[in-house]
Amino acid sequence: MRSLIDLRTRIEAGRLTPRQAVVEAQAAIAERDGAIGAIVCSDPDPVVSVEGPLAGIAVGIKDIIDTAHLPTQMGSSFYAGWRPRADAAIVSRLKALGAVPLAKTATTAFAGLDPAPTVNPHDPAHTPGGSSSGTAAAVAAGMLPLALGTQTGGSVIRPAAFCGVAAIKPSFRLLPMVGVKTFSWALDTLGLFGASIPDIARALALIADRPEIDSSGEASRKPRIGLCLQGFAGEADADAAAALSRAARAAGAAGAIVTDLTLPEPFARAWQLHPLIQDFEARQALAWEYAMHRETLPPVLGAQLDRAQALTAAEYDDARRHAHRARRQLKDVFSEFDAILTYSTVGRAPRGLASTGDPRFNRLWTLMGVPCVNLPVPGEGLPLGVQVIARFGGDGQALAVAGMIEASLGRA
Amino acid sequence: MRSLIDLRTRIEAGRLTPRQAVVEAQAAIAERDGAIGAIVCSDPDPVVSVEGPLAGIAVGIKDIIDTAHLPTQMGSSFYAGWRPRADAAIVSRLKALGAVPLAKTATTAFAGLDPAPTVNPHDPAHTPGGSSSGTAAAVAAGMLPLALGTQTGGSVIRPAAFCGVAAIKPSFRLLPMVGVKTFSWALDTLGLFGASIPDIARALALIADRPEIDSSGEASRKPRIGLCLQGFAGEADADAAAALSRAARAAGAAGAIVTDLTLPEPFARAWQLHPLIQDFEARQALAWEYAMHRETLPPVLGAQLDRAQALTAAEYDDARRHAHRARRQLKDVFSEFDAILTYSTVGRAPRGLASTGDPRFNRLWTLMGVPCVNLPVPGEGLPLGVQVIARFGGDGQALAVAGMIEASLGRA
């Protein structure tokens, strides 16, 4: 993989120019993407800034995020060739930092559950996960050092885990959603994908303009970590359980105090209510697409929106109130723990391309709006990851704990 | 003015067809808008549904709200002729109810403070207010029975008061913002303008799919009303003070228990922090416009975004935390009061078209996310209005209390 920090170190030392770094990314795309299908389109003649803390960093932009200089096609035939007037706020921010929004990365249609035409770089017979399929695959295949995805259920953490890359779904609305196609406004969250935890910590601190996020070296020496199996969401595979145990042991070896955490009932209920909130909002957010193009929507999304027509405002209002209470209760949990360690996914990327996998271990945390990090756990075979979660606004804390475990796993 | 309920009554009784109702609106626009400048463009050959509870209702759509069938120009030269791909969610909802999104209404550039080319229908030498200038003027001039605006500071309540029309800025996110140009995502709120309180109550209940909102007849017989002068925001004109007193007496005459309410200090601080939250988000939301078209932004908005570049994430985070605490504290206020009665504006629409007026009595309530209704107070000269506010989610309550006062003022 291409490390953002490594590239920036070489650029700052004068051993690499920003343009050379971008040309390398273009060459990697040209060489590798034919077999992977991560890239929808890319800028053949990008403007490369020589200034800014992300100069020379080529970025992949999930194709539900507006770009004025490249089409934004939503993974959907009826947005083929669509050119927004303006860049999304996050794209403007990347440019202001000197980064190059080089390529649009493949998304499932409207960031739903119907697969994108992307394969897992580790084995093309397996899904890369979704909905940020191209984003995760492009980083995993070493095409791009940084890429943007979004998560409404588990669309950042799941593809990152399946493809073996570091990723963060930050606190809700830490990154601006202006110019990002909406699926569910209470849930949709921009996320960052990179080669390692320090890489995404650097990127998030710069993009969010909050230097304190990038303080991996200054983590509490003995963070209190709650090991949470999310029993309400079902069981994980043996492989995922083994990876979680390894990560917990690595955390302990690094000085963390790891204890079991069983979440009380309101969180199980909140987990159950996530799809109701999501689908009631998706029905409104995609109302034009549903009214005008129902017949060309892909099958899973079409059926999901069909079912969503029956949801009532009263059900939605009750679900939102419950989620609001659960968010407050989660603050109490985080008074006892600095971070939660849990599954990123049920297991490794499933075989086949008909499904993008199951977001069951991600949904609750998206609804709670708290920062979630996928930390790859090194090992044989297809990748596995674990999830590190902190309180709302504790993005730096989640990254610091994940970085501590990453370093400890590297030493093991 | 054209009453939505009156039109629907005649349509349901078979005395008017939906098409005739829409043709009447087209004729009113053709006759009156030349002198007012409320309409940016309109559909010459609209599809008129004969089904749905809003069939025959021609609606004005503020021109920062996406429409696939009409340009969406943001009040800005660099969006001239811009055609979005999809309708905003609220436009799809109107169509699903049978309404006709007939015309785009003039907005200040990006819903900022630079005036739109619209005059006050009651006196063309006076501002109609902003930023929903054309929306308020089109309803006031009897062109349209219903129109959409948005409020970030006071852009629904202020123009409604200046133009003498009923309007509601509902609870935050009761109406979907998908496809509405963002100024500040924590504040931007869609609102409805109509001829009377019952008209907007009917419209909001249908659009939000929450029938309980339209229960004007079932208001508490003795609502507890807090009369609030918002001293932290400065003083109102004598005319506005007299209108507020009249409204308070009318409420008392109708059976309400009206007592003085002085808000504690945290609300003054929240009021002060509103512009910081707004401008920090506007800097991100309009980053593309600022980076690419700074020289053609209108002067007030350009200068506002210039200043916003200096705001820090730490200031913003602190302000958001304070606003969050104030919202919780406001729940306690609403345990003692069913509604708050306060100023809509500092006074009548100022003379001249160089300013859209002052939102100082609206800002706090936008930040709190609570429903606000403008109730016109009948009298001589340019219009005056008062503001009725209820707890978050109490949109029906705010409308019921406003309707009670409206009826009592009519009897006086």
UniProtKB/TrEMBL annotation, chains A, B:
Family assignment from sequence similarity: Belongs to the amidase family.
Official protein name in the record: Amidase
All copies of domain Amidase, residue ranges: 51-398
InterPro entries (UniProt xref): Amidase, Amidase_dom, AS_sf
GO MF annotations in UniProt: catalytic activity
